[in-house]
Please model this.
Amino acid sequence: MSETDVVILGAGAAGLMAAGECARRGRRVTVLDHAARPGEKIRISGGGRCNFTNRELSRQNAAERFLSENPRFALSALSRFTPADFLARIERAGIAWHEKTAGQLFCDGKATQVVEMLLAGLGPAELRLGTAVEAVRRTGEGFVVDTSDGPLRAGRVIVATGGKSIPKMGATGIGHRIAESFGLRVTETRPGLVPLTFAAQDLEKTAPLAGIAVAGRASAGRTGFDEAVLFTHRGLSGPAILQVSNYWREGEAIVVDLAPGRDIAAALAAMRAEAGRVALHNALARLLPEKLAAFAVAEAGLAGRLADHGNRALERLAAQVHRWQVRPVGSEGYRTAEVTLGGVATEALDAKTMEARNVPGLYFIGEAVDVTGWLGGYNFQWAWSSGWAAGQVA
Ligand code: FDA
Model:
């Protein structure tokens, strides 16, 4: 049976970061992944340009921007290996980058540059692809990892197998099963950063809007996001909806403002004074995409000309635009979800090292853990920070 100091399960963002750090400390490292290529999610992320971190992340806002049963758990790792630290590596590797909205940093070129940078950082660490991890067992002082290529013995094991999102890309959720096999609790898991779907009766009305995108504001409960909202053939998508999907629970309604920052009632009243003969939906179409205007007028139960309606009716229409309430029936699920909410319960782990408190030598990092960030580079930053933290000690 081959033997090494540290076995890392998963050659994704977190696993590659941890492997580089362990190797730098002179540890003998083997990284296992069942995929044919490492870092596949990095490659497709950010539309192929990898939104690799977010420079707005700070100690003050981190607990708000990461979801977890214990949102403060992530603070230690995030403040020890920061967005600035990762950016410094990007710059050292000569990777050109740019900032989009809200602190989001992207590569100017291909996301594969980030994978290449991480692979270069592996040094002498061994990368075994096409090797599926089946289970991890404790033996004496160390562990045995059962794989499709036979067992492997190691003193330390870092579980970096991600969550359940996009099984087609290799997600298996095995990290959660490994945790449970050692008696660690796994919190409820569900798809996150995911498009929401509508019931047939709502779809009948919104399906003709498929393809329309507006700068909107979507809210679930008290949490709202000002970003693009996109109508799809199955419901709603776009960054504002993906963000809000993390906070939405089945059975609840979301509220969408289709024209944030504008006063639709006042704008219509002003138009009425000058062009009262215009059909109501045509008047609204001067402020919103035409089909969306017709939809809002119909939903408000109105018709006819602008001049036919008093201020109360215009306010009803404006409420339809600014506070459209819709109750999604579900989400597109793990098939398209960017992340998995929930995972290995944080109380089982040491926040500084990611080591399981009751299983010395076993570590959990990245998406496998119950830490999920907002859209915008936060999830990769968690992968880098938690991978770095484990990589200092394993
Ligand atoms: P990750 O999923 O990256 O790696 C896990 C590895 O484990 C995989 O290589 C997998 O093959 C392997 N594995 C699983 N089961 C195994 C088994 N049984 N045996 C062997 N190997 C196994 N985030 C962000 O911050 N900015 C962005 O731009 C994007 N964009 C984006 C786009 C899309 C389409 C998706 C799906 C996701 C994003 N994300 C993102 C989220 C980001 O990709 C995610 O948070 C990180 O990849 C998580 O890193 P991990 O290393 O934890 O898991």
In short: The chain has a mean pLDDT of 96. The longest helix spans residues 378-391. DSSP finds 14 helices and 21 strands in the chain. The chain has two domains: 2-191+340-391, 195-331.
